[in-house]
Amino acid sequence: MYCNCTGPGFALHSDIVMPYIVNYGSKEQIERFIPSMTAGKYIGAIAMTEPGAGSDLQGVRTYAKKDGSDWILNGNKVFITNGWMADVVVVVTVTNREAKTAAHGISLFLVENGMKGFQKGRKLEKIGLKAQDTAELFFEDVRLPASALLGELNKGFYYLMNELPQERLLIADMAISSCEFMFEETRNYVLQRKAFGKTVAHLQTVQHKLAELKTEICVGRVFMDNCLQLLSERRLDPTTASMAKFWASELQNKVATQCLQLHGGWGYMWEYPIAKAFVDSRVQPIYGGTNEIMKELIARGIMTQT
């Protein structure tokens, strides 16, 4: 029923969650989780977003209070990809309410499925990405051992800022890949679909539209490959990652709209892959930081350049 869907959020599991554990986890945490996550026996999630804190991570209210050597975690998260299936969740949590800024009082914890007080809410019904579960998570007096702290205390916001460029580049890469897929689906369709006694591909307006889309997608791929090279060399900066996420996701939505249009009425039918790609594309400018926030970050990077 959900053809062309990926299933669980494998990209988030492998390219977002696991790097937090690899880069900031203790030897024991790495040995405990990474082999099982690599084998697919454990599914990972990261819980940042709350009902009152989305792109503004400093607005997080989930709180962990020290209790002897343990921590007591309370709060809730929403829109968590893999939340329902997750065996381990990286939870963004306030640990110091008296810090000089909110950013200086945030820590990360590894919360495991089955811990007392950790409840998974309903699976949220999305308009797209149907095969990926998205859930609400609730934490009520969850007792966490000291070993559940990921990295150093109150360094969580710093870790998030380090890892978010890769997350945003991942979204951008998926966007460009989706553009390439939608273009090929549409090219194949117009070469077969007939109207006015000939294939739709013979219409000059269709040819020009395909030429325009192909050019923009190729430009996007070159930009993406450059960003991936920067990432591999550890030179990808937050501004460039924000540009990639903003531009690629906007292009994806443009390509989705125009490719669906070239399918005519059939493009609006759920049985066609372009329909699924169309609804899947809409979330790309939202998660990982909205594109409005991306513009703010890009502008900030421009204004602070010396």
From TrEMBL:
<dbReference type="Pfam" id="PF00441">
    <property type="entry name" value="Acyl-CoA_dh_1"/>
</dbReference>
<dbReference type="GO" id="GO:0005739">
    <property type="term" value="C:mitochondrion"/>
</dbReference>
<comment type="similarity">
    <text>Belongs to the acyl-CoA dehydrogenase family.</text>
</comment>
<dbReference type="InterPro" id="IPR037069">
    <property type="entry name" value="AcylCoA_DH/ox_N_sf"/>
</dbReference>
<dbReference type="GO" id="GO:0019254">
    <property type="term" value="P:carnitine metabolic process, CoA-linked"/>
</dbReference>
<dbReference type="InterPro" id="IPR006091">
    <property type="entry name" value="Acyl-CoA_Oxase/DH_mid-dom"/>
</dbReference>
<keyword id="KW-0274">FAD</keyword>
<keyword id="KW-0809">Transit peptide</keyword>
<dbReference type="GO" id="GO:0042758">
    <property type="term" value="P:long-chain fatty acid catabolic process"/>
</dbReference>
<feature type="domain" description="Acyl-CoA dehydrogenase/oxidase C-terminal">
    <location>
        <begin position="154"/>
        <end position="302"/>
    </location>
</feature>
<dbReference type="GO" id="GO:0033539">
    <property type="term" value="P:fatty acid beta-oxidation using acyl-CoA dehydrogenase"/>
</dbReference>
<keyword id="KW-0285">Flavoprotein</keyword>
<protein>
    <recommendedName>
        <fullName>Long-chain specific acyl-CoA dehydrogenase, mitochondrial</fullName>
    </recommendedName>
</protein>
<dbReference type="InterPro" id="IPR006089">
    <property type="entry name" value="Acyl-CoA_DH_CS"/>
</dbReference>
<dbReference type="InterPro" id="IPR009075">
    <property type="entry name" value="AcylCo_DH/oxidase_C"/>
</dbReference>
<dbReference type="InterPro" id="IPR036250">
    <property type="entry name" value="AcylCo_DH-like_C"/>
</dbReference>
<keyword id="KW-0276">Fatty acid metabolism</keyword>
<comment type="pathway">
    <text>Lipid metabolism; mitochondrial fatty acid beta-oxidation.</text>
</comment>
<dbReference type="GO" id="GO:0004466">
    <property type="term" value="F:long-chain fatty acyl-CoA dehydrogenase activity"/>
</dbReference>
<keyword id="KW-0560">Oxidoreductase</keyword>
<feature type="domain" description="Acyl-CoA oxidase/dehydrogenase middle">
    <location>
        <begin position="45"/>
        <end position="142"/>
    </location>
</feature>
<dbReference type="InterPro" id="IPR050741">
    <property type="entry name" value="Acyl-CoA_dehydrogenase"/>
</dbReference>
<dbReference type="Pfam" id="PF02770">
    <property type="entry name" value="Acyl-CoA_dh_M"/>
</dbReference>
<dbReference type="InterPro" id="IPR009100">
    <property type="entry name" value="AcylCoA_DH/oxidase_NM_dom_sf"/>
</dbReference>
<dbReference type="GO" id="GO:0050660">
    <property type="term" value="F:flavin adenine dinucleotide binding"/>
</dbReference>
<keyword id="KW-0443">Lipid metabolism</keyword>
<dbReference type="InterPro" id="IPR046373">
    <property type="entry name" value="Acyl-CoA_Oxase/DH_mid-dom_sf"/>
</dbReference>
